[in-house]
């Protein structure tokens, strides 16, 4: 979400903080648009939504979408195949869960290891 740069002011006080002396300073500071702890506390199905309209970022609950199983139908099954249409084979599809993600392989001192 990035940061913003507001002006931060300090005010000098007199009489043990009971009143302002009229002196102080201002400087530009950087602060997060959304505190990092907000992202750390997100639960499954939650997101932080921010628009470019300058509104405050909001925490939202996302409704899960279940897609129907199977192969989608072509718009014109009897017509010619468009050059942008591609066939997707099951082995090329992304895994559905983390347990289906294949182990990553890396080389350590010339030997092949699996994580």
Describe the protein in words.
By secondary structure, the protein is mainly β. It has a domain at 3-61. Helices cover 4% and strands 33% of the residues. It has 1 helix and 8 strands; from the N terminus they run ββββαββββ. The protein has one helix at 36-40, and strands spanning 3-4, 7-14, 19-28, 31-32, 46-49, 58-61, 105-108, 111-114. It has a two-stranded antiparallel ribbon. The longest helix has 5 residues, at 36-40. The mean pLDDT is 76.
**Compute the gyration radius: what is it?**
27 Å
Q: Please tally the helical runs, counting DSSP H or I stretches of 4 or more residues.
A: 1
Uncertain segments: none
SS-derived structural category: mainly beta
Q: Give the tally of β-strands.
A: 8
Average pLDDT for all residues: 76
Termini gap: 32 Å
Strand content range: 25-35%
Shape: elongated
The helix/strand series, from N terminus to C terminus, equals EEEEHEEEE
The major pleated sheet works out as: 2 strands, antiparallel
Helix-residue proportion: under 10%
Q: Give the neighbour order of strands across the main sheet.
A: 1-4
Task: Give keywords.
115 residues, mainly beta, two-stranded antiparallel sheet, two-stranded antiparallel ribbon, 1 helix, elongated
Element layout with pairings:
Elements: E1 3-4, E2 7-14, E3 19-28, E4 31-32, H1 36-40, E5 46-49, E6 58-61, E7 105-108, E8 111-114
Antiparallel strand pairs: 1-4, 2-3, 5-6, 7-8
Question: In short, what is this structure?
Answer:
The chain is mainly β and 115 residues long. The protein has 1 helix and 8 strands.
């Amino acid at each position: 979400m990035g940061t913003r740069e507001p002006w931060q002011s300090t005010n000098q006080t007199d009489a043990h903080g009971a009143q302002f002396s009229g002196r102080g300073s201002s400087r530009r500071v950087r602060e997060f648009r959304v505190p990092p702890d907000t992202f750390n506390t997100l639960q499954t199905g939650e997101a932080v939504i921010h628009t470019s309209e300058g509104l405050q970022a909001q925490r939202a609950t996302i409704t899960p979408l279940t897609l129907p199983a199977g192969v989608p139908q072509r718009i014109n099954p009897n017509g010619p195949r468009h050059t942008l249409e591609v066939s997707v084979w099951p082995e090329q599809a992304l895994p559905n869960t983390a347990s289906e993600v294949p182990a990553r392989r890396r080389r350590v001192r010339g030997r092949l290891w699996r994580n």
